[in-house]
Structure formats: C-alpha cells, structure tokens
Design a protein that fits this description.
The chain has 122 residues and is an all-alpha fold. 52% of the residues lie in helices and 0% in strands. It has one domain.
C-alpha cells in the first residue's frame, strides 16, 4: 500500500466519522439526512475496499476527498451547511431541505401624506 493509499483511507475515515458524530439540536431534514447517510456509508465502504483490495488512487481523487473532509470539519459535520450559498440559502439548499419559504422582500411602506391641519383650541 502506498502513502497516497494510506492518506486516502485516513481522509475517508475522517469524512465518515465527522458525519457520524454530527448531532443536530433542531428538526432533521429527511433528504439531507439521507444524503449524509449515503456519503458516510460510501466513505466507510471505500475504506473497507481499499484495505482488502488496494487499487490505484489518483492524487486528484485524494485532493477532492480532502476538500470534502475540510468542508465537513469546518461545518462540524453539517452536510446541509455545504449547500448554503447566501444567508438565505441557495435554491439547491432550499430544495434539499424541503423549505418552501420564499425570500422575504423588504418593501418600504410609504408614509401617507395628510393635508389635515390640526386646529389648536383656544
């Protein structure tokens, strides 16, 4: 097994454990939960495959997985945070999180002008 293969296994293990150890305080989003589960199981499966039947690993593959691992570590394992592009979230994020909230448009209310004169009582 090469050094690149060992790094590959360590990076995938970090990805899988970071997702596995994520705890959410609020409500869970079903599609994001399934996506996180698929990523975690895929990472563990790839680790098992690489340990039992080592294959050729490219540097670009390890770098892509390392970028995913760094993103997950930065967001504490929260897969949903990886899809947010703005403070309101991207369209993909809203689709995956099943949120139907539309962006709130800030409308400025016009002040109504009145021509009423206030009379002062003597």
């Amino acid at each position: 097994m090469t050094i690149l293969g060992i790094v590959h296994i360590l990076v995938l293990t970090a990805v899988a454990f970071r997702i596995m150890l994520f705890t959410r305080a609020g409500r869970h989003k079903p599609i994001i939960s399934v996506l996180a589960y698929i990523i975690m199981v895929s990472a563990f499966t790839e680790v098992i495959v690489q340990i039992t039947m080592p294959a050729v690993i490219s540097l670009s593959q390890v770098m892509m997985e390392a970028a995913l691992a760094l993103a997950l570590i930065a967001h504490h394992g929260n897969v949903a945070e990886l899809f947010k592009a703005t403070k309101d979230g991207s369209k993909l994020s809203r689709l995956l999180c099943w949120t139907n909230e539309k962006k709130k448009k800030a409308k400025k209310k016009r002040k109504t002008k009145t021509n009423k004169h206030h009379e002062v009582s003597p």
